[in-house]
Records
---
Amino acid sequence: MRIFENTHFDFLSSFRSSYIISGILLLVAVVSLIYPGLEAGIDFKGGTEFIVGTDTAIPSTQAASALGDATGEIYEVKEFGNPETLIVRTAAGGDADALRTSVVNTLSSAFAGSNPEIEGTYSVGPRIASDLKEKAIVLVLGALFVILLYIFVRFDWRYAVAAVLTLAHDVIIVLGLFALFHNLTPFSLQIDQVIIAALLTIVGYSINDTVVVFDRIREYALLFKTEPYAETANRAINTTLSRTVLTSGTTLLAVLILFLIGGEVLKGFSLALLVGIGVGTYSSIFVASPIVVALREKYAPARRVVTASA
Amino acid sequence: MQGNGFKLFAVGALLVISLWQLFPTIQNSLNNRDLASMDPAEREAYEAENADDLQATSEEALKLGLDLQGGMHVTLEVGTGALLRELAGNRTDDTFDAALTAASEQAVTSDENFVTLFANAVEAERPGTRLARYFRNADADITARSENDAVVAYLQEEVEEALVRAEEIIRQRIDRFGVTEPLIQRQGTSRIVVELPGVDDEERVRELLKGTARLTFHLTPPTAEVQQAAANLFAYYEDGGEDAEADPTATADADTTATQVASADSTADSDADSADVLDLGDITAGADPSEEAGGNPLAAVLQRIQVDPSSNSPIVGQVAESDTAEVSRLLAAPGAARLIPPGVEFLFTAGPDAGVTADGDGVHYLVAVNQRVELQGEVITDAGPDFDPYTNAPQVSITMDGVGASRWSQITGANRGKPVVIVLDDLVYTFPTINERIPNGRTQITGNFSRQEVDDIVTVLKSGALPAPVSIVEERTVGPSLGEASIKAGTRALLVGLVLVCVFMAIYYRGAGLVANVALLLNVLFIFGVLASFGATLTLPGMAGILLTIGMAVDANVLIFERIREEMESGKTLKAAVDGGFSKALSAIADANITTFLIGVILFSFGVGPIQGFAVTLMAGILTSLFTALVVTRLIIDYLVQERGVNVAFG
């Protein structure tokens, strides 16, 4: 079976529309990052989260108001996979001891027969949270820098700049999606450590994809020296298209399975990967290559100028 | 096939090593399945008989993270502030207190260590202050004239030492608690991370970790004085206590108390609807909420017990467990604190020893004790569980050293007929009346103990006192059922993902796809083998990492197969196309995988816990998938094409 065999898509001219698509996506992402903005998970904000198993389904809104009435604190309650399991969040962090008792007592007295039981606890104090936040920022910036450096050494600075701009594009769009939808999904879309890991994986995947295309552009640039650079890029994208789609396909398949049946804990993580891999694949074709071409046309390498004048 | 000997050997060796490394894991899961199917008695006998074997396989098996097997992860922070206060002894002043508060606030966001923050805060509070005025210490060569730098260095050393000691003590306590494979390690300058797989008695562990085990013996103030102070306190709150308007938190609290009382009322007489309406009417009419609670916030939570002043009893009153925090708050309010005689403090009893309330809440006594410490836990040489000879109730018996025993003999001799209060971590365990002089330093601590509580008290007493109080700053517990659900979901996703990818490859590349699938299956085996041999821990994000690798693992093969197709289209023979495909794809494969591997390295170096687990599997997956794609696939295709002359289809 073959798909995309000997394709001759004119990516060159579709670059214009991809600028528009990326522009709109980025705009929406940036606007939603400002409002409603990202929702920090307890890793970065501090707070306590309980997973409570019950014998009878408790409506999450009623549970939240019962807990709020009893303690005067604000509680956020969501279903966790099934109606008999709730995830309960509150801002108090660190020592979860007293909170645990109060949650169990309040729920069992407010909902007769529910017999709530704490199945999991995650509690983070403000100091740890601020440490983790700092680490996460260092992590993402560090990763981008290392990639910038690697591509600079292996290719040249035009490719490096294009790669990092592409990665920033991908990360911003995925974050924007989290900002836009965090109030609407039945599962959690808070930004926590695991989401940071997902972002970096997206960065890793996207650069993997981008590098394969770059590699081919570089190879063809030596073969077809007289051809305009944009043509070369187009040819390279077309020949690697089959591989790009295939690898993305299997990876998306695996991640989709993770999202569908991988359990409640990994829902946000696998959604980030799902969207990120899609965006990463798109960007390696429609964002990274045009930037390289544009940079190449504007700042042509010295050797090429010599060839042209000879 | 020449030159392939080494490759063949490498593949075979890796296969054997992986299987060898995974053998205990398979054995372990078989054991667990057998054990689960036995009835409890049979299981216990079997476990006792094969304890060594079972433990050996479970220790060598691939470790599961806390998120998969359940357990507890706790980050403790050693209270540096309290330690500095202790080092300063009673030389503290307002500047010291203000600087300590400022440093604690800054510590939340700052990277600087606490001692430096404190030193800076002292300088900001009163420039030119010599730290040595607080921390003079002949043993450490800190004199009143020592430079601040020297004092800071000394303090940092003390803090470091305290952390090391705290870690050691916590390790001893955990060892006695008996957790298999606990992980205890220091993190940074003030934290200790404790991981306890499989623990489900969380509350007990928490108490065990936090207890500073500071054991002190106190005498009590004259009963008449205490009763007078209690009367004054109740009178103070009867008159309204702190100016309600001046203290917004007080009104807020009073409000919630009032709502609680009101809602409790309405549920109590739910059949009397009119009464509810009446209640509501009262509140909306704007009645002072505190009047709803009887007008006296202290009386609402503390039931005063008046005793005969000549009885020597230190009991002030009794408090329901859920109200202890509120009572502490009311007693610590500045206006109220003035009414407690100097040198006296009010402490709660540890066990609910004054009965229970109607809704099952344990009731504790509030007891007056002299702040002055007569004798400290340092004199204790041994502690052990014991039983009261008359009631057979569990108790703790302690033995003191020579100095302690003679001091104890003095105290008990001089205070016959009076109570002596034994306090552990600011909770009163027992306050027996001294009947006679105790000459030998042997004493019992009684209380409303369970056998388990006695064991825990013995444990903390024996491992010694923590150098400074510790608090829990991060906690993650996963119950066994949640862990099991995660394993199930993760395993299912892994298998389904693997099968689907294999089916896809077989359809798309046909013969070559099947070869890639053999490589993919070996790849999964190798990943687990690598994880097991490095003693890595498999977490849920780690399983996600493996699934992601499965999706991406075919990438190298796809790159190669696509190249081979291109070569064949340019008219080369199959053999030449295979050679060309492998060599030309190499550069793209290398660049793509090195970048992803670098991300794994970054995640591993800066991430913590589950993220490291993810990073490890990602890196292991990249290495094994490179190996299988470049070596295993090549071997099989070369064998088929060259040895057997099979016309392998590339789709």
Note: The first helix of chain B runs from residue 5 to 37.
---
Amino acid sequence: MKCYIGIDLGSTTTKAVVMDGKGEVLGRGITNSRSNYDTASAVAKQEALIDARLTLVRRALAEEAALAGAAEGVLEGLERNFRLEQFLEQLEDLERTCLANAEHDRHEDLRKAMAEALEEIFGRLRADAEHLYAPGAERKSDFFRDIAGSRYMQRAEEVAREAGLPFDPLLNVYDKSIIEVENRPPAGDIGGKFLRALGRVLAEGGVHADHEAVRAAVERALAVELEEGYVVGTGYGRVRLPFSKEHIRSEILCHGLGAHLMYPGTRTVLDIGGQDTKGIQVDENGIVVNFQMNDRCAAGCGRYLGYIADEMNLGLHELGPLAMQAKKTIRINSTCTVFAGAELRDRLALGERREDILAGLHRAIILRAMSILSRAGGVQNEFTFTGGVAKNEAAVRELRKLVKENYGDVKININPDSIYTGALGAAEFARRAVEA
Amino acid sequence: MSSDTTRIDGKPEVVKEPSMLKQKEMIARNYEALTSAPETGRKVVSTFVPGNLNELVMCFDMLNNLPEINAIQNGLRKKSGAMIMDAEKRGHSEDVCTYVKADIGMMGKGNIAPNGKPLPPPDLLLLSYTGCFTFMKWFELLRHEYKCPTVMLHIPYQGDGRITPEMVKYVVKQLREEVIPAMEKVSGVKFDIDRLREYLRESAKAEDNLVWVLESAKNRPSPIDAYFGGVYYIGPIFTAFRGTKDATEYYEMLRGEIEERLRKGQHPITPEGEMEEERYRLVVEGPPNWTNFREFWKIFYEEGAVVVASTYTKVGGVYDLGFRHDPDKPLESLAEYCLGCYTNRNLPQRVDMLVQYIEEYQADGLLINSIKSCNSFSAGQLMMMREVEKRTGKPAAFIETDLVDPRYFSYANVKNRLESYFQMIDQKRRAAGAAA
Ligand code: SF4
């Protein structure tokens, strides 16, 4: 099957979307954008392809009435165990890398002890893994670095204590190795991992359907060749993507088209990203007819919220919920990251509540976005809000208020998959480059 | 045709046409004349580019010094940043026109001309006001510094879009009663109207050729870039050379070169050699950015974008709309010249001009480079943009930079917007192709 891939290399996360020839989304993938853009796009792409496989499995299971009831369980188990396989594979890589690094750094006397300690640590980590990915287990993050990191610290401390070794060298070796592992392009053999995962699912015993029929359906889905028809890259880091110029589209066009695919009736798109805010107008075909964006400074963009969170010693995700508890909105005039800090401290010193100040900050951001929107020609009718800030309920509340005040009752769309808007547009550009 | 080859910072060889060398030599000679005025005893007039009275100045054997041009020179040579900071230290606000601050900063640093010698203090400040009130305050500052005679030639603004006979009479009256007597007094030379006629005859010849050159952009491919290249073409006629034999020769030479390019079907010359392909034809409104001129230009020629017409090349006269200096009515024609300058035109006239250019030059769209520190140009530009879009159906884009303040130029931001704009034109074209 020919498929088309869009990759959106953002400043903090990299997203990929895989689409089939008819324009249907098969899969989505996301990873953190690291220093190595090539790896970030390879990882995001692989994640989207894995998701696409799961879609194909879902379709294959749906084709047989007898398996319909088991589909959700199979899919859940398959994904979970696939993640386990992936985790074990990367864990193995990490172990090899740690051993090699320990070999390099250490003096004769510590070398052997370090190797033994590492073997012990990784043995325990492998045993932990099964629990981590057991049915119903919760994981705080899906990124290898997050999961492996915290477990490693814990296990290394135990082992160091038991073996009477210093903890620091074990920590150093990990720090050095995790970066190498993370920046290595992901290994292939997705099919093999899925088959091993399937074996685990069936062995877990939770699937109450004809095992042979399930296996046949999954194998059928795995046999479909996902041929890369065309790839288009976009986003902040697009110039660094390993593509030629024809494979690169500006994020403004991709966001416009992506929003149009999600909501064909939309004419105005607002995207508040980490680095910039864009007001985009599209026509009935999703073609961008006008756009405006913030000038050279990132005032009022996602980064602004990041600064505020740091300033208040809060996590980024805590800002919105806190602002929702406001009793009044303190007026904050500055959307400049430099001045806002001062204004904030000033308000706190005056005894204002954090919640009320935060409400004011959210309003300031949206006011700034409204001015960019009006430069782009205002809100025409159906309106779509995308970008990271669209997940912040306090920002959304302000936006709804201000849109209503300025433009009356317009339909406002916020898609749960809005983080993929740019990648979706890019995938559609890829599809059109070949199919149109 | 002979041509000289120069290497600029080890980059590919740049071919300099004979006309470029001639212009360079003319400018050097003029700065030499200015800086040696204390020895030669010649008198110096400081005045402005739009609506300047070069032919009249020459009638009194005086030299013409243009602070705006000095600021541009310093911007191009990356010296304006420090000068602006200096002016700010002396109490000039960040938001004021950066030409003014570059000039004030230059004074503070000893008024050194590009030839390394100090410019003499002016003997007369000739404020021919056209369309910009900042001029008045600028010369007020200079008068405070130099305490020399100052004459103001007040030019009525074309508020309702036309020049009336009363306006011409009003300006001529001032020329007769204020400007000419002041010049006679400062220079000690008696005014001779026949001498003025002679210069004006020379001006008109050069103007004919300039118009021919600018209109050569109506061809496909265009042999010139009428913005980045255009600023070089207008140099002599906007400054201290209009009315001289030198200027006439320069424009004859230039026309010959462009005729040759046309015959050969050649593309415009860029700092890195000839442009390879014409992919986009644009009309540009607003002055260029001088501090990052090369970088800015590069974003265009790398994408195959050629500017076929610009309004900036009309700030010193709208010759292509029919105006010529006329030896048969010398003072009246000087008055009409001042009244007709681009900055002295009202917004509907500016919109008409842009619409006309887009149509006559078969452009793909309009780009506005909005200058942060120049309210005179920038007020109303968004409104103009919408109006042009509406009347031509062609897409427009908006970027923001500054004249000579390097702090106001964000390469990444400008490039992002321009790339998006070019892709937007592509997308529109494809859609139009698909519909047809
Ligand atoms: S027209 Fe603009 S750039 Fe020129 S002097 Fe006036 S304010 Fe400055």
Note: Chain A has a mean pLDDT of 87.
